[in-house]
Amino acid sequence: MGHDTTSRTRRRDRRGGPAVAGNPHRVTPPWPGDYRLRVHARGRDDTDLRGSESYQLLVWQAPAAPDIVYARADRLGYRLRGEADPARPERPEIAYRWLSNSTLGMAATVTVVSGAGVGAVLRAFGADPARPESMRAIGEDLVRRQSIDPWVAVLDVGEAVIAVEYNGWEGSTAPVLTEASAGGRVASMFWNVEAETRLSFAEHGAVLLSVEPFAAIDAPPPVAPAVDDLDFADHRRDKRLMGLLAVQRFTGHGISADDVARIEAADVGFRIVPALPALRPRRPQPGDPLDTVAEALAEIPNHSCGTWPGGSPRRQPTTEGSAKTRTSSPASPPAP
Questions:
Q1: Which of 17, 178, 242, 298 could form a cystine bridge with 319, CB 3.0-4.6 A?
Q2: Up-side HSE of residue 48: CA atoms within 13 Å toward CB?
Q3: From CA 145, how far away is CA 317, in angstroms rounded?
Q4: What is the DSSP code string of 102-120?
C-alpha cells in the first residue's frame, strides 16, 4: 500500500521499551540505545472520511543517522512544515466522497440504466416487478439464513434508472448488462470488502468492457471518454469513486447521497433469480460443493428455470456471461 508521506528520523532511548501513545501493548525493544524510526502516513487530507487516516511506524536499532524524507505528498504536511501548499487541481471524482461514510461504503454494486423503465430493469436483473418486499425484511432474512442471495433496489430518476445492490454483484454480470442495455446504455461499478472491483459498460445489448480497474484501461471508443483521465493505479485515488464517475459519464447520470436516502426511505427491494443457464454454462467438476444442486437444476428445462412463481417467464439473455465467485458476508440495509 502506498503512502502520502514517508520519513525517517532517529531517537536515543535511555531506558528502553517506550510505547506508542495510547497503546501500551505496542512497544519498542526493551533495551536502551540508538534507534531509527520510519513513519508512513496516508489519508491525512481526508479526515472528513471515516477511517481514511492511517499510520505505520517501523522501529529498529541502528546508529544515529541524518533524517530523511522519502515522500511528501499530502497538504497537511506542507502546512505543518510552514511551506506553501502546492496548487493542485481537484480530482473529478471528489463529488463521490460521500460514499465512504454511506451504507454502500463497504460492498455494493451501483448500476445506472438509460433507455429502460423500472420494470424492464428489474426483469433484466432477474427480479419480478410484481413482488416487492421490504429491504429490511430481506436483509434480516438473509442474515438469519446466513445467505448472500441476490436482491436489488431501484430508483427512477427520470431519464435513467439506478439499481443498487447491497453486498451484491448481479449488475456486473453479462446477462444483466446485455438485457438491461437493449434500449440504451448501462454502466455499473462493483466493489466489496476484499478490495475486489469491477467496472462494466454496455450499449444496445452488447457488453463493451468489463474489467477490474488496476491501471490504465484500454477502453473501446464509446467508453474511452468516460475513463481517459482516471488513473486507477494511483493509490491516492479511490477506485470506487472513479468507477462511479465513469458510470456517470457513460450513462449521463450518477448516484447521489440523496438518491441512496430515497431508496432506503422507500424500503422496497426485489429478490433476484440469476440467469442460471448463462452464468453456469457447463456442468460442475468433481468435488464442486454445488454439484448436487447444479445437477438438479440442469435437468430443469430453461423455460421452467426462468419462470417466476406468478407464472410469467423471464426472458433468457442471448449472450453468455461468466459466473462470479465472491466471498462476502451477508449485509442488511439500515432501518429506514
A1: 178
A2: 5
A3: 30
A4: STTSSSEEEEEEES--HHH
State how far the Cα of 90 lies from the Cα of 195, in Å rounded to an integer: 24
pLDDT of res. 17: 61
The stretches in the chain having pLDDT less than 70 are 1-5, 10, 14-30, 45-52, 87-88, 276-285, 287-336
- How many Cβ atoms are within 10 Å of 83's Cβ, its own excluded? 10
- Read off the pTM: 0.69
Backbone torsions φ then ψ of 309, nearest 5 degrees? -55, -30
Q: Find the Cα–Cα–Cα–Cα dihedral 45, 46, 47, 53, rounded to 10°.
A: -90
Strand pairing partners for 72? 5
DSSP structure class, residue 94: G
Structure-derived torsion over alpha carbons of residues 56, 60, 62, 64, reported in degrees to the nearest 10: 30
Looking at the chain, which runs of residues are DSSP E strands? 5-13, 19-20, 23-27, 33-42, 54-61, 68-72, 108-114, 151-156, 160-166, 185-191, 197-203, 206-211, 270-271
Q: Return the pLDDT at 111.
A: 98
DSSP one-letter code for 127: B
CA distances from 161 to 96, 113, 114 (A): 18, 5, 7
Residues 103 and 264 sit within 8 Å (Cβ to Cβ)? yes
Q: CA 1 to CA 233: how far, in whole Å?
A: 11
Q: CB of 107 within 8 A of CB of 48?
A: no
Q: Which residue has the cell 440495509?
A: 333
Q: Which amino acid is at 122?
A: L
Give the distance, in angstroms, between the CA of residue 185 and the centroid of all CA atoms in the same chain. 20
Region class of 311: left (phi > 0), else alpha (psi between -120 and 50), else beta: left
Beta bridge partners of 201: 187, 209
Backbone phi, psi, residue 47, to 5°: -70, -10
